[in-house]
Structures are given as structure tokens and as C-alpha cells.
Specification:
Layout lengths: L2 H5 L2 E3 L1 H10 L1 H21 L4 E9 L22 H11 L2 H11 L15 H8 L11 H12 E5 L5 E8 L2 H59 L10 H35 L8 H4 L2 H20 L8 H93 L6 E5 L12 H27 L3 E3 L25 H5 L2 E2 L1 H13 L3 H9 L3 E2 L2 E2 L2 H4 L2 E2 L1 H11 L3 E5 L8 H12 L4 E5 L8 H4 L7 H5 L5 H4 L1 E2 L6 E3 L6 H5 L5 H11 L2 E5 L5 H4 L7 E6 L5 H12 L5 E4 L19
Parallel strand pairs: 10-17, 11-15, 11-16, 12-14, 12-15, 16-17
Antiparallel strand pairs: 1-6, 2-4, 2-5, 3-4, 7-17, 8-9, 13-14
Keywords: Cell membrane, Coiled coil, Membrane, Transmembrane, Transmembrane helix
Membrane topology: Multi-pass membrane protein
Subcellular location: Cell membrane
């Protein structure tokens, strides 16, 4: 009987288990009191240690009265979280600890120098070679090592407060050392600022002297170039040639406008005279005073003619005289208009001449302005260089004066201050007698209770038989020799391979009487006959080989085949061979390896390092990552995997979903469960499932596994053996591998 089966037949009697505590209460109490007494003695003999702390605040100490010009309170440097952490490392640095050790002369105290007053036990350990000799280490390093062990420097979370804690056997030293460390840190920071300020003044002095010379040279170059280029400046801070060019351009535009206006007016007067049109539409003609008087005389004559025409005829001498005068006035007006036209033409010619002169002057000034522009660009570059040098010099002078004043007055505030100094503690922080004694008493009680329970559990006194447990002795039966099935076995024999309660009884009877020839003959007599051949005893017990198992699965259209191998890894070959045979028949087959050692998948993949079902259950991989092809057939394999089995089994409830998905994708899913119990395979069983019990030898272990499976609701169990099966290209299964 296997250990797993035996363990399933007993239960823990909790009443008997916890009753052992009442039976052994005196022993538990005595041992607890002894341990508590030892703890009390240790706390009484232990050297008391005192702890004190000093608190520093990292902040800007610059005041509004000493702050340099051009800066305000918002410009001050504020240390971030990393900066404050860096200051913690500075405080616990070797240089500061050395200063404190020398100042307080800690090397003379045995507490900080183990070699100064070494206990006898320590000397014996050094002589025996079990402990290093502290005298081989320099005294300074021994003191620093002890100080680091007793020192604790940390930053208060979400603040710029640094706490310096120190523990010592002397309460006075517990307060003096953190205060000395804080003072040394502030002194070091002040010296660092002084050195930085001195370095700044030492660097600025020669830089200022050099910049002063460069500023003089740059300004001299500007003046010299301005004199050589003859760049005269006009209004609006512009070059004179450019300013003159602008003025001539404006004059040229005005002259061109006047010329165009005179030519247009003369042309309109000419057209009016040539076409005999009215001159009243020409403004220049109407503006003439002479023409205005002639027009007035003309209007007067026309009025007289109109008055006389009422009483006289057209050929009257007087009317004829008036009309003659009117015609003479028209000739005078036209003559005057011609004079105006000639004057406009003369004005246009004069404007044209002025325009030509201005164009020549503008062209001359253009060339001069272009040369002046190039010279101005060079001059501007020299001026910018001189201005930049001057500004840099002024900036350096301002900083140098500020640094010099701070150096002379020796005022360089440190960005830290001690706001809580350590005081000598009155009570030690170690040892705390009551907490230690209480913890020792409670811990010893719990420890003794656990030891008592484990003793009771391992002795077997707290175990009782489980309900319905069966402990039957089954003799071991030798495995029959390999044989070949007759070629004319009918289909009905394969279907009769499944065993029920009657078949199981025959299997147990055969197991008890295998060695007796008479019983073997009786079993052979009860076997069904096929034609004239006699069925061997194996078929009587419902035992089939790989070929019959394959034929049964293909003919029944089974979707899932669950293989249980109570004999362990050696019997896992049945699932591998069945999967390969059905895959070679043309069906889509997948083998799922649920053994602990990967006995089914390892020979199919030649490795156990592929991701598999544990990775899928642990959500570390997907289906496409865990399905691998068999190296020797068309079958697909899901190995055990590489994930943590404990983590994977937490998601064992996902197995039915995974089985349903695989059943949908494949024609047959073969599951090798190893020596699993019926409760374990219940998650894998579904519609269209066949359960097989793989066996190598019909011993008591196989019989017990068959009994459990049948009693758990699998009466159609089928026994299958890989013994004697050979597959071309595949090794014959042995006792140490699955394929």
C-alpha cells in the first residue's frame, strides 16, 4: 500500500492531540519558568546602555540684511530629499568621527577600544584562533568601528531634520558624543564655505585684472575704427549718408509727383483746345484771373444780346456788334488757355530736370550708404564685444566685492543649526527587564506547547482510523511476460476491457492465487473464448495493451483520456505511447503532463526546462507559450513547466477551464496524472472522458488504486500496460523512463 493511500486512511484526533497539553502542563510550566529565570539573570548581568539624540535642521541661514544684492528669499538653495540624505552621510563620515574621537579622547576608554581591557574569555578565543586579535588593527580604526556600531544617523521622513543617535554605557558620553558630532559637522560646513569663498576671491582677482585690460582694448578698437571709417552720425543715431539718402528719396518722390501732375494738366488743356471742348472742366484754366474776367465779360455780352433780341432782329447792327465782341472774347480765352498750357509744359520740363538731378544724387548716396552700412556692421560688432566685456567685468567686480567683504568680516552662515541638543539620559534603553522577561515567558510557553503537540502527533497517539478506511493485505504478483495479441481479436473484446466491481474481484483473486497452478487454470477456464483460441489470463482481468487502448479511444470518439500511474514515473509510458499512436492515426492530440517530475513530457521534448502548465496556472505564460511539438511524432505536449508549483496550485480551480479550452482545440486530450488520488482527477473529468490505470505489475499498489477509483465513481476504469509495445523510431519503455 502506498504512503499516500495509507495517509488517506487515518485522521488526526484533535481532542487527543490537545489533551497532551493538559497531561504535560507541569513540564511545560517548569521549562518556561527555567527559561524565564535565565532571561532574568541575563538582563540582571547585562551592562546597561544609554541613548541620547541631537537633532539638526537643514535650512538657509542667510538673513535679509546680509543677502547679496539682486537676490531674494526665493532664490536661496533648498536641499531636496537627496541633498538631505547626502548630509546624513557627511555627518557619519570618517573625518568627523575622527575629530570627535580625538576631541573626547575615546581611545583611552575600554568601551571603544576592545584591546585596552579585553575579557578573559575573549583572550582565550584569540589564543585558540576562534577570534581575530583586535590588537592587530590600528587603535584609530578600532575606535571608529565601535563608534559606527553605536552611532545611528537618519533623516526624519518628509522633513529636513537629521537625528544623531548614540548609545553608550556612560550616560554622559551618550549625550556628549552626538553633541560633539553636530558641532563638528557645523564647523566642517563653515570651513567648507570659507574655503569656497576664499577660492572664489582668489579666482576673481586675476580674472578682473584680465577683464579690465580686455575692456580697454575693446573700447579702443571701437574708437579707432570709428575714426578710420569716417562714420558721421546724423539724427536718430543713424549714419549721415543714410540719413541724406532718405531725405533725397523723399524729395525725388515729391518732384516726380509734381512733374506728373503738370504733364497731366497740360495734356488735358491741349485736348480741350484741339477738340474745341469746354475749358471750364480744367481747374488750372478756371483759376486764372484773366480768364475769369473774360468769362465775366462774356456772360455780360450774352445777357445784353438776349435782352436786345426781344426788340431787335439778328441783323441789327447793334446785335451784330455785340456778337463780334463775344467772338473776340472766345479767342482771348483760348489764347490765354494756350499760355497756361505752355506754362504747365515748362513746369513739367523743369520738374523733369530736377528729377534727373535728384536721381543722380540718390545713386551717389546709395554707394556711400552701402559702404557706410558695411562699416557700421563692423563697428556694431566691436561695440557688442566691448559691451559684453564691460558687463562681465561689472558682474565680476560685484561678486568680488561681496566675497571680499564676507572674507574680511568672517561671516559665512552655515545652512544648518542644532535645535535640540542631547542631554544625559537618566534611564537605560537596554535592557528592558519586564518586556524581556514577559517575552521569554510567553515565547517559552508557546515553544513548549508546539514541541509537545509535535511529539504527540509524530508518536501516532493522536491519529485515529478514518471512516470507511480499508486495510487489506494484497500479495505482490509477478508481471506476466510480454505477449502479442492475436490478429483476429474482435471489437467486442476491446469494449469489454473496462472493469467494474466483478472485474475488480477477479483481479484481486488473481493477485492472491497467481503462484498456484490450480488457480491459474481455474481463471483460464473462466475466460471468454474467441473462436478456438483461449484468451490469456490478462484479458480476463480487463487488462489491455497500447493498441487496444488506442483502438478504444478512436472508436468511441473520446475527448479526454485520464491516465493514473500508481507505480510512479515508470508507468507513465502508457500515456505517451497512446498519445503518439493516436496522433500517427491523423487525429489532433495533446498530452498534458501533471506529474511532479515531468516523466511524461521530458522524453518527448528531451528537456524539462520548457514553460508548461505551472506557468499557465501562475499567469506567467499563455497557451501559445506552453504548447510544444513532440520531437518524435505529430503530438503536442504541455510539460510540467518551470514556475513555482505552490504558486501554481493556488490557481488549481482554473484547470476545468483549461481542460475545456484544450478539448475544444484538439480531438483528444491525454492527461498523465501520475500516482494521483480520485479527488485530484475530479477537476479533469468532463463529458466524454475515459479513465485509464497504467500498470507495469499487478501488485497491491495497483489494486488499491483501482479500488479507490471505482469506489470514487469511476466504475468503467480500464487497465492498460505498455509492456511489450514497440513503436518504430521510439525506444521501448523501460523501468526508468516514460518513453
Amino acid at each position: 500500500m502506498s504512503v499516500q493511500s495509507a495517509a488517506a486512511d487515518v485522521d488526526v484526533d484533535l481532542r487527543q492531540l490537545f489533551a497532551s497539553l493538559a497531561r504535560n502542563w507541569l513540564r511545560i510550566l517548569v521549562i518556561a519558568l527555567v527559561i524565564t529565570g535565565l532571561a532574568l539573570a541575563l538582563t540582571w548581568l547585562a551592562t546597561p546602555h544609554y541613548m541620547a539624540e541631537t537633532r539638526l535642521l537643514i535650512e538657509t541661514r542667510e538673513s535679509v540684511y546680509t543677502r547679496p544684492d539682486g537676490t531674494n528669499n526665493d532664490d536661496r538653495p533648498i536641499l531636496d530629499e537627496e541633498g538631505v540624505t547626502s548630509q546624513v552621510e557627511v555627518i557619519s563620515s570618517t573625518d568627523i568621527l575622527k575629530q570627535v574621537a580625538q576631541k573626547l579622547n575615546l581611545s583611552r576608554l575600554p568601551e571603544f577600544d576592545e584591546a585596552a581591557d579585553m575579557p578573559v574569555l575573549s583572550r582565550l578565543l584569540v589564543v585558540a584562533g576562534l577570534k581575530s586579535d583586535p590588537s592587530e588593527i590600528p587603535p584609530e580604526e578600532r575606535v571608529l568601528k565601535t563608534m559606527r556600531e553605536k552611532l545611528n544617523v537618519y533623516r526624519v521622513e518628509k522633513s529636513r531634520v537629521i537625528v544623531i543617535e548614540f548609545s553608550s554605557e556612560n550616560p554622559r558620553l551618550a549625550a556628549e558624543i552626538p553633541n560633539a558630532i553636530a558641532d563638528a559637522y557645523i564647523s566642517v560646513q563653515g570651513n567648507a564655505k570659507t574655503e569656497s569663498n576664499s577660492a572664489a576671491t582668489d579666482w576673481l582677482a586675476p580674472e578682473i585684472a584680465d577683464l579690465t585690460k580686455r575692456v580697454k582694448d575693446a573700447e579702443a578698437k571701437v574708437a579707432s575704427y570709428r575714426a578710420q571709417s569716417d562714420l558721421l552720425m546724423g539724427g536718430n543715431n543713424s549714419v549721415l549718408a543714410t540719413q541724406q539718402l532718405s531725405e533725397l528719396s523723399s524729395e525725388l518722390s515729391r518732384v516726380r509727383a509734381n512733374r506728373a501732375s503738370a504733364e497731366a494738366t497740360a495734356d488735358s488743356v491741349r485736348r480741350a483746345l484741339q477738340n474745341g471742348g469746354s475749358l471750364d472742366a480744367v481747374p488750372e484754366v478756371l483759376s486764372s484771373e484773366l480768364i475769369q474776367r473774360l468769362r465775366e465779360r462774356q456772360v455780360e455780352l450774352k445777357t445784353n444780346i438776349a435782352d436786345l433780341s426781344t426788340s431787335l432782329l439778328d441783323n441789327h447792327p447793334r446785335i451784330r456788334a455785340l456778337r463780334s465782341q463775344l467772338a473776340d472774347l472766345d479767342r482771348q480765352i483760348r489764347n490765354e488757355a494756350e499760355k497756361i498750357m505752355k506754362g504747365l509744359m515748362t513746369q513739367a520740363q523743369t520738374a523733369q530736370a530736377r528729377e534727373n538731378q535728384l536721381v543722380a544724387d540718390v545713386n551717389t548716396l546709395k554707394a556711400a550708404s552701402a559702404r557706410a552700412g558695411d562699416q557700421q556692421v563692423e563697428l556694431d560688432a566691436l561695440q557688442r564685444e566691448a559691451t559684453a566685456q564691460r558687463q562681465l567685468l561689472e558682474s565680476y567686480l560685484t561678486r568680488y566685492r561681496e566675497a571680499s567683504s564676507r572674507k574680511d568680516s568672517n561671516y559665512l552662515p552655515v545652512d544648518a543649526r542644532v535645535f535640540s541638543r542631547a542631554v544625559a539620559p537618566s534611564e537605560p534603553y537596554f535592557p528592558k527587564t519586564l518586556p524581556i522577561i514577559g517575552a521569554a515567558f510567553v515565547g517559552s510557553l508557546l515553544l513548549m506547547a508546539i514541541v509537545t503537540l509535535l511529539q504527540e502527533l509524530f508518536s501516532g497517539r493522536a491519529m485515529r482510523p478514518a471512516a470507511g478506511a480499508r486495510f487489506e493485505r494484497i500479495e505482490q504478483v509477478a508481471m506476466p511476460v510480454a505477449r502479442h495479441e492475436p490478429a483476429d481479436i474482435e471489437e467486442a473484446d476491446v469494449e469489454g476491457a473496462g472493469i467494474g466491481e466483478a472485474g475488480l474481484e477477479e483481479f484481486e483473486d488473481r493477485a492472491e492465487t497467481e503462484a498456484e497452478p490450480e488457480a491459474a487454470a481455474a481463471a483460464q477456464a473462466t475466460a471468454p473464448a474467441i473462436g478456438e483460441d483461449v484468451e490469456p489470463a490478462r484479458a480476463t482481468l480487463g487488462e489491455v495493451d497500447i493498441d487496444k487502448a488506442v483502438e478504444k479511444l478512436i472508436s468511441s470518439g473520446t475527448a479526454r483520456a485520464i491516465f493514473v500511474s500508481p507505480e510512479g514515473d515508470e508507468a507513465a509510458a502508457s500515456a505517451v505511447l497512446v498519445a503518439r499512436e493516436i496522433s500517427d492515426a491523423g487525429l489532433r492530440v495533446l498530452l498534458l503532463d501533471l506529474t511532479a517530475s515531468g516523466a511524461a513530457s521530458r522524453p518527448m521534448l528531451d528537456s524539462g526546462l520548457f514553460p508548461g502548465i505551472t506557468n499557465l496556472l501562475a499567469s506567467e505564460a499563455q497557451f501559445s507559450d506552453v504548447i510544444h511539438p513532440d520531437l518524435y511524432s505529430d503530438c503536442h505536449v504541455i510539460p510540467v513547466g518551470t514556475a513555482d508549483p505552490v504558486r501554481a496550485m493556488r490557481a488549481a480551480d482554473r484547470l476545468p477551464i483549461i481542460m475545456q479550452s484544450l478539448t475544444t482545440a484538439y480531438d483528444l486530450v491525454v492527461v498523465e496524472c501520475g500516482p494521483a488520488d480520485p479527488q485530484s482527477i475530479s477537476r479533469l473529468v468532463g463529458e466524454g472522458t475515459e479513465v485509464f490505470l497504467s500498470m507495469l505489475e499487478p501488485d497491491d499498489e495497483v489494486a488499491q488504486a483501482a479500488v479507490e477509483l471505482i469506489e470514487s465513481g469511476y466504475p468503467d476504469l480500464t487497465l492498460v500496460t505498455p509492456i511489450g509495445h514497440e513503436t518504430p523510431g521510439t525506444p521501448v519503455p523501460g523501468r526508468r523512463s516514460a518513453a
